[in-house]
Amino acid sequence: MDSPILEPSLYTVKAVLILDNDGDRLYAKYYDDTYPTVKEQKAFEKNIFNKTHRTDSEIALLEGLTVVYKSNIDLFFYVIGSSHENELMLMAVLNCLFDSLSQMLRKNVERRALLENMEGLFLAVDEIVDGGVILESDPQQVVHRVALRGDDVPLTEQTVTQVRHLLPSIHSLTEKIKLVSSGAP
Fold first, then answer.
1. What is the pLDDT, as a whole number, of residue 5?
2. pLDDT tens across 74-105, in order?
3. In terms of C-beta density within 10 A (0-12 exposed, 13-18 middle, 19 or more buried), how is residue 129 classed?
4. What is the C-alpha to C-alpha distance for residues 150 and 121, in angstroms, rounded to an integer?
5. Residue 123 and residue 100: Cα distance in Å, rounded?
6. First vs last C-alpha separation in the chain
7. What are the C-alpha distances in Å from 105 to residues 119, 150, 153?
8. Is 99 helix (H, G, I), strand (E, B) or coil?
9. What Å distances lie between residue 184 and 102, 174, 179, CA to CA?
10. How many CB atoms lie under 10 A from the CB of residue 118?
11. Which residue ranges does the record assign to the AP complex mu/sigma subunit domain (predicted)?
């Protein structure tokens, strides 16, 4: 019996999920329309959590999808691909995400630390996967790029602590502008 030959595709990742130990969504990014509504996505996430939270496996086939996952303290990380997707590729994405977060959070990969650093998570996922295409699998490169992108945050999106460090420089510049505008050398 001949099976149809599938065309190779760069679009390997269908979703990246992070759930807490109750199965509630902390982060979800879907790259196709397999689950178009939030209601369908949440139902899928509950189903996936119920099937995986008590097992020590790293891979599951669920609803025609390949799911690779990892748990740590109070978080569950999932990378989802189609049923014919290479599990090793999906696992490389999962390990890169987990190792990148581990470095960024100084080995403190838990719910509270993740919620305090969501911008780093968003940037890391964007560096690893874009539109379902795997861009990077080296956690060192991801952490480096996230650090570079983090330096370019606009003033309106920075935290109070970050802005507070800028205040002496801003004050110095305003004093210089006042001196120049008053005609003083």
1. 67
2. 899 999 999 888 899 999 999 999 999 989 88
3. buried
4. 11
5. 11
6. 88
7. 12, 14, 19
8. helix
9. 53, 14, 5
10. 11
11. 12-150
